[in-house]
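Reagents: none. Just compute today. Aspartate aminotransferase.
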Amino acid sequence: FWSNVQKGPEDPILGVSIAFNKDTSPSKINLGVGAYRDENGKPYVLECVKKADKKIFEAGVDHEYAPIVGLASFNSLSVALALGEDCKAIKDKKIAVIQTLSGTGALRVAAEFLARFYPGKTAYVPNPTWGNHNTIFADSGVAVKSYAYYNPQNCGLNFDGMYNDINAAPNGSIILLHACAHNPTGVDPSIAQWKKISQLCKDKQHFVLFDFAYQGFASGSPEKDAEPVRLFVADGHQIGLCQSFAKNFGLYGQRIGAFSLITGTPEEALAVESQLKILVRPMYSNPPIFGARVVSTILSNKELTEQWRTEVKGMADRIIGMRESLVKYLKQHGSTKDWSHITNQIGMFCYTGLTPEQVDRLASEFHIYLTRNGRISIAGINSKNVEYLAKAIHAVTK
Ligand code: PMP
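Predicted 3D structure written out:
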């Protein structure tokens, strides 16, 4: 049957982990991994999650199916966390929301919905973007193009390029925006720049889809990270919103996320919800319950929510601290290059500006592994390996 099936290429990030695992050096570092690691390089289970686990266990819950749209309490808490409890669209019941299989699932449901109900439109994603964006749209039958985003000259934002490309897209296009902690570059627009983009998207009647995979994880404040999304909503955009609770709650493998769509009226919201259900039913029927229960238990409990805020800030602060530490050691070991982009960028990832050849040298001479685009996951750095990393980066860049 399958002799015509050819072996496909491996995911480049997987390749980094395979090379890292094969290396027997005690000083090896894996900077490819897209998941938070603590000071000891270990995965981190949040204390608030452990407490929620216990509460759920003690409540003696059953394991019946969730409704197609997922757990109702999770859905409303999730949207309120992103848009703010006093968001008018929430009060006016104009938002259709469904629980999804983490951020990826939210994006996939969004793309499937757009293919069916907003046909013939092209989705514009930043260049570069999280690789899965391109594939998700393409596999859902939505054409994808990119808009300028990254400026390799200063490892920052190419705002003019971004603005011009969004302006040049046909009216009513789909514009995908990373709400905060852009992956892979770590480069985010300023609030003043977000305001200009919002106005432009209004003038162009674009449909704006936010990918919000890092709320709280970028700055340490869930409210601050939500500012761009809330700004667009306040400006009257009927945005689509894809949320993930993988990073900020450390619930990676639980696959917990949400897709919501702001509509014009409560009736429209109900109609959209009904169609989302029709889309989801033949894909996976209904979502898993455990992650939804964990997030819902935390966000409906004042004490646990406070603890979550402290813990997500702890993760964000550790990452910000490691950026500062890396720059400090680079200077200390004699690098005279401008590394300010390392601290200007935000979130788990940093686009270092290292060339593919320099990345190869880091692996072969120093046992340090990252993708060849020069992206490092700051989560892989800790106080024990940061100086070694700085020395190695200096050695390959001088
Ligand atoms: N969007 C972006 C920008 C991401 O970086 C990620 C995680 N790497 C996701 C979405 C989705 O991740 P998940 O499906 O694990 O929530």
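The pocket of 4'-deoxy-4'-aminopyridoxal-5'-phosphate is lined by residues 34, 102-104, 130, 178, 183, 211, 213, 244, 246, 252, 257 (CB under 6 Å).
Action item: order primers for follow-up constructs.
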